[in-house]
Amino acid sequence: MTLAGAVALAALVWLAVQPAQRPLASARIDSLPAEADISAFARAFEPRPFVFPADHGPHPAFQTEWWYYTGNLQDASGRQFGYQFTLFRRALTAEPIARASSLASNQLYFAHFALTDISARQHVAAEKFSRGAGGLAGACARGAAIPCDDNASFRALIEDWSVTALNDAGDQVRIIARHGNHRVDLTLRAVKPAALHGDRGHSPKGAERGNASFYYSFTRMQTEGEVVFDGNTFAITGSSWMDHEWSTSALGKDALGWDWFSIQLDDQRELMLFQIRNADGSLEPASSGTLIDAAGQSTPLTLSDFTLEAQDRWRSSVTGGEYPTRWIIRIPAQDIELTVEARAPDQEMNVSIVYWEGAIRVTGTAGGRPVSGQGYLEMTGYAQSINGKF
Questions:
Q1: Model pTM above 0.85
Q2: Which of 315, 326, 312, 387 is nearest to 354 (CA)?
Q3: Mean pLDDT of the chain
Q4: Which of 83, 157, 161, 181 has the fewest CB atoms in 10 Å of its CB?
Q5: SS3 category, 149
């Protein structure tokens, strides 16, 4: 349930394809025009088998898809960094474009890239947009609906930002992205098998049948490489998290925003939790999570299994958004209580859609023993953006 996610993505793409004369200020989440006919798109109605490396690649029969990587990194001196790299695909129509031009496409791609120098409490963010044609942007995988021309197991790119598989399984990748004097060149290697969220990878987001996604993660990826921050180069190691999700019409009409956590604990367990906040202040009953044990086995969590308590808040001087930067997570049946804190308060993504996405530290207890960890937190629906309240 990531990064700019389903609602933000729908809003952003809608803005991208609307006539230029439409005022941006009128584009509010609660006044988006009705979805175009989605009957021709595939929907996530029920569980289905996952096959890799094919499912690392694109699923163009579905309207919306994203590949999401975040991580906590450090150099030999202990200087700490966080990063985010997310590539989104949005189908504008279900039918292929009939025109013969090599630039013709019904697929819009965009991406977000961010780096946080935690030690200096500095955060930079950037985005790109491109059409899925002419080599400008796209995704492919061996055995997928769109195979790679060179038989690579997986690749996704937008201009000079890319993620490329380095092995046949597709669970070891290289990420390259640059923005001005900031850059990452990272190699990630999964140390656990893919975790399937929800019911065998079928993750409901609302009560209506089909308001769901197919969703899996690599929850712990050993990471090494190079970070350039403000022109200074650092050799780093660390740990990353990868999400891949695809859907058509995933969220309900009352959804206002969400809070999403990816946590790596030092007892070698991982935790994904999300809660969808509705406009009336209630929580979407489909909010859920997954606890992954040290051996890679997953336990699904429903909303009744956990609580998320927001505490300290940070106010953005740019957007006026007020984001919780300290949370208490309780999972009584697992005897888990965690305190989650932002590693730096200002990790706001001030791009076309404003949201907060940043590195977190974790402390607490599990089974009566101290536990600590790290991860990433995404929060939407707290800030004013150029597109109105989101």
A1: yes
A2: 387
A3: 89
A4: 181
A5: coil
